[in-house]
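ugh ok fine here u go
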Amino acid sequence: MAKICIITKKKPMFGNNRSHALNATKKKFIPNLQYRKLWIPNKKKFIKIRISNKGMRIIEKKGIEKFFN
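structure:
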């Protein structure tokens, strides 16, 4: 399964891991994704989504109805 947040569209980034001696090794930075079941009141059902913590904060602020109609 793709590691992409449905709300924020965050996906893995690639970069370098730097040591104290400034040696560079490749690293993959993955977003903090969680599985959540959310209740949609106007559809009267739960949905199971994979969402980042930033996406959860956005849903709390703007409401679930804005994203899932």
